[in-house]
TrEMBL record:
The keyword Nucleotide-binding does not apply. GO terms for biological process: negative regulation of glycolytic process; regulation of pentose-phosphate shunt. SMART domains: PGAM. CDD domains: HP_PGM_like. It comes from the Bacteria. Substrate binds at residues 13-20, 63. GO terms for molecular function: fructose-2,6-bisphosphate 2-phosphatase activity. The keyword Hydrolase applies. Keywords: Hydrolase. This is Alpha-ribazole-5'-phosphate phosphatase. The active site is at residues 14, 85. GO terms for cellular component: cytosol. InterPro entries: His_Pase_superF_clade-1, His_PPase_superfam, Phosphoglycerate_Mutase. It comes from Halalkalibacter wakoensis JCM 9140.
Length: 207
């Protein structure tokens, strides 16, 4: 392991889309952000410009690419399909109201880890690809100092719940165009998260 003993990971959710506004399930359907609402990201944009990122990664889906372009992060970005949202299969574009009486949907809400979405992605597959990305990120011979990951709500919830075992998947809240910042220190042969905060800044929460 290199000389770096501290790493900050910024998890950014893409800007809002029409489907988000309509509360439709949006997984891997490749829709654009609402361009007229990108200025809602200006405060985040200004905060990120203050940081020198040595690692920038993004989902390949259009809404993430458009958000990354607007944020003008001053660093070369790497596109990684592993950072895509879960594939909602037959439920893509549907709302809770349209699905609430479908038996397998009700089962999935209660047991998402064991119930496969029809013609979609099982949670185990979703976990596996995100785990693969995270493992590579933390096992680099020369660790990053500041890393930005631009992705989707489900991905960010899973990453936070994986890296902070006391935090549950559904308890993680991240708005469109918001960043969750996780700070890590290298201690006794492993990376330990010692704080979580939101960007734009709110009061820091010590872990």
């Amino acid at each position: 392991m290199g000389t770096c003993h501290h790493m900050d990971l910024f998890l950014v959710r893409h800007g809002v889309t029409t489907w988000n506004k309509e509360k439709r399930y949006l997984g891997q359907t490749d829709v654009s952000v609402i361009k007229s609402e990108l200025n809602e990201l200006d405060e985040l944009k200004n905060e990120l410009k203050k940081i020198e990122f040595d690692g920038v990664f993004s989902s390949d889906l259009r809404r993430c690419q458009e958000t990354l372009s607007y944020l003008e992060v001053p660093s070369h970005s790497l596109i990684d399909k592993r950072l895509r949202e879960i594939n909602f299969g037959d439920w893509e574009g549907k709302t809770y109201e349209e699905l609430q009486h479908v038996p397998i949907y009700r089962q999935w809400l209660d047991q998402r880890e064991s119930v496969r979405i029809p013609n979609g992605e099982c949670f185990e597959s979703f976990q596996s690809r995100i785990d693969s990305f995270i493992n590579e990120l933390f096992k680099r011979e020369r660790p990053y100092n500041n890393v930005l990951v631009l992705s989707h709500g489900g991905v960010i919830r899973y990453v936070v719940s994986k890296l902070l075992p006391h935090v549950s998947f559904w308890s993680v809240s991240v708005e469109h165009g918001q960043a969750i910042k996780l700070s890590f220190i290298w201690q006794e042969g492993e990376w330990l998260c010692n704080s979580l905060s939101e960007v734009p800044s709110q009061e820091k929460e010590k872990l």
